[in-house]
Design brief:
By secondary structure, this protein is an alpha/beta fold. The protein contains seven helices and 26 strands. The strands form eight sheets. Strands 5, 6, 7, 8, 9, 10, 23 and 24 form an eight-stranded mixed β-sheet that branches. It has a four-stranded antiparallel β-sheet with strand order 14-13-16-17. The longest helix has 16 residues. The chain is globular. 54% of the residues are buried.
């Protein structure tokens, strides 16, 4: 759990929820959200704009027109990136009704055979009174779940996303006449929080994973929420929202992953590329290390996780590819795109912070290797635009650790880090469930709801990454991630 009283007591942490479905081919990765068994990132078909279909209702004191404008403005942070081929089409009127607890099942995709996958709609829903959240996740969650979004369908060849959805819980937004209980709990979101949530979550919807770039800045009080611009170098896709107003603008690191997935042909010709492969001290391929290109300006930092684009297959169906034999080749490889030819870089290897697992995880491994040693592996004193600087195989001082999922008798993957067997059932005060790392749902067989959610608890947001089935919430523990639904 995280607290930041020096930042007004608010510390937002971004999480994901993935629900079980048997779909073992795609793999979760750091950089792209999913990669194919050939190591290619899964993306939307950009020959046409990605359609979003907002409902016709309200969100707190924001009218439907206000919300349409907000969606348009906040997805534009991705559209206006120079050299990107990614557009959104906000299609007003396709859902000509207010979606609420009485009709949400007509739009929400919650299983692999749900008709919503093929209905031609990517619904964006506004849960004004929190009752949809109650219906989906159980009573009490209307005060903690701010929203969710994500792709929920794939093409037959598993290379493209074909369907998606989003919902924003408006109950605890400032100005909602129904949020009295939220205020009593000290849970009130601002307009900046809503805007940032839209940008971050739509980033996930189109395939962007988390990044830990400039974590040192985010972890210190030097990032002041009352001062404009001092948090600009913290990425949109950083797992924690430190300052929503500053952080909503994509950094260089955000831009590079966006262009890596959706860049126009030749976008990389203006930049340098650095590639190589990592091994541990014993010569074994080193996967899930964070490789960063840094200068003396934090705004320039770019990162990629080693092995994120490696050909791999999730044979055990846990959503990761760190099991025995799941990474097929190039497991320690990395490629850094987007380096400025006029700048000098130090290439650094870092461990992915152990806190970035579960709901706020980074990379293709289910747990982070704490035996990775932070070290500089190369320097780049300028480079040639369009050229690739090959570093070759680099032996590090790190030790490979066993990052394979461990399973209990029920088959759920688990972790000793941050797990809890405390019961956090319906009607319980979630603030006393310490820590609420992941909420395992066990009242019905595996469902296929693919969600990216933001969880708010008083003073901070806490994210759960995976569910094994739908509500009510019955326990709090770490569980594995399984990939989403196939069209």
């Amino acid at each position: 759990m995280y607290n930041s009283p020096d930042k007004g007591g608010k510390y937002l942490k971004i999480l994901f929820f993935f629900l079980l479905i048997f779909f073992p081919c795609l793999a979760f990765a750091g950089g792209p959200f999913y990669v194919t068994t050939e190591g290619a990132p899964v993306v939307w078909d950009t020959s046409n704009a990605v359609s979003l279909h907002p409902e016709s209702g309200l969100c707190a004191d924001f009218s439907n027109g206000d919300m349409l404008e907000k969606i348009t403005e906040n997805v534009a942070y991705w559209e206006i990136i120079d050299g990107i081929e990614l557009d959104f089409d906000i299609e007003e009127g396709n859902i000509g009704e207010d979606i609420d607890s009485s009709n949400y099942t007509d739009y929400l995709v919650d299983s692999s055979d749900d008709k919503g996958i093929d209905d031609g709609l990517n619904p964006v829903m506004f849960d004004d009174d929190g009752e949809i959240i109650v219906a989906v996740f159980g009573d009490g969650n209307q005060f903690s779940v701010l929203g969710f979004a994500g792709p929920d369908g794939f093409s037959d060849d598993e290379t493209e996303y074909t369907d998606g959805q989003a919902l924003f819980n408006c109950l605890c937004l400032a100005g909602n006449e129904n949020n009295g209980d939220c205020e009593d709990l000290g849970v009130v979101f601002s307009e900046d929080d809503l805007n940032f949530t839209m940008t971050h979550e739509i980033g996930h919807m189109v395939g962007f994973d988390h990044t830990q770039v400039n974590q040192a800045m985010a972890d210190t009080i030097s990032c002041d929420t009352t001062a404009a611009g001092d948090c600009d170098d913290i990425p949109v896709m950083y797992p924690v929202s430190v300052d929503a107003a500053d952080q909503i603008t994509p950094t260089v690191d955000d831009i590079v992953i966006a262009l890596t997935l959706y860049g126009q042909d030749g976008w990389e010709d203006e930049f340098c590329i650095v590639s190589g492969a990592l091994t541990d001290a014993d010569g074994n391929e080193l996967r899930c290390a964070d490789v960063q290109a840094v200068t003396d300006d934090t705004a320039d930092t770019i990162a990629v996780v080693s092995g994120a684009f490696a050909p791999a297959e999730d044979t055990d169906g846990d959503g990761y590819t760190d099991g025995d034999g799941e990474c097929l080749s190039d497991c320690g490889s990395f490629t850094l795109y987007g380096l400025d030819p006029d700048k000098s870089y130090t290439i650094t290897v870092k461990p992915v912070d152990s806190q970035w697992t579960g709901g706020s995880g980074i990379g293709p491994c289910s747990s982070q290797n704490e035996d990775i040693v932070e070290e500089d592996i190369a320097t780049l004193e300028g480079c040639t635009a369009g050229a690739v600087e090959e570093l070759g195989t680099i032996q590090t001082e790190s030790t490979s650790s066993d990052t394979s999922n461990q399973s209990d008798d029920s088959g759920d993957s688990s972790s000793d880090s941050g797990s809890s067997e405390d019961t956090c059932g319906v009607d319980q005060d979630f603030t006393t469930c310490d820590p609420l790392i992941s909420c395992s749902l066990s009242n019905k067989p595996a469902s296929a709801l693919h969600f990216l959610l933001i969880i708010l608890l008083p003073g901070f947001l806490l994210l759960c990454r995976s569910f094994s089935c739908l509500p009510p919430i019955s326990s709090c523990r770490l569980s594995g991630i399984l990939p989403p639904m196939r069209k």
